[in-house]
Amino acid sequence: MLIAYDSKTGNVERFVGKLNVPSVKIEENMTIDEPFVLVTYTTGFGQPPEKVLHFLKRNYRRLAGVSASGNRNWGNNFAVSADRIARMYGVPVLTKFELSGTSRDVEQFMKEMSAVASY
């Protein structure tokens, strides 16, 4: 399954690089014609990035799941952009990971993505 991602500081991009699966950095006006998992960061007080929201307006029909990066210092707002996108589009949250993720986060993500892909 394809991973579509956005990265502001490089953490999400580093996480996606650890996955060794097809991926594409999103652009607002791009269209994806196959099922994909979104990996994004959280901004502000738990908002999804505007660029991601614009991208999803065009591509939500193929969205299969979402994961987000965050910083645990934000407490209840840790990676909450994944929760918000999941509610907006009725897809599962696959994982939440801090900064660029650990090997355990990568393992969990791959497990969850495989489950979504087989569904």
Q: What's the SSE blueprint?
A:
Elements: E1 2-5, H1 11-17, E2 23-25, E3 36-41, H2 50-59, E4 63-70, H3 80-89, E5 93-98, H4 103-118
Parallel strand pairs: 1-2, 1-3, 3-4, 4-5
Function: Probably involved in ribonucleotide reductase function.
Protein name: Protein NrdI
Organism: Paenibacillus konkukensis
Write up what this structure looks like.
Strands 2-1-3-4-5 form a 5-stranded parallel sheet, sandwiched between helices. It is of the alpha/beta class. The protein is built from 4 helices and 5 strands. Helix 3 links the parallel strand 4 and strand 5.
Task: Give a brief outline of the structure.
Probably involved in ribonucleotide reductase function. The chain is an alpha/beta fold and 119 residues long.
Tags for this entry?
36% helix; 119 residues; 4 helices; Flavoprotein-like_sf; alpha/beta; five-stranded parallel beta sheet
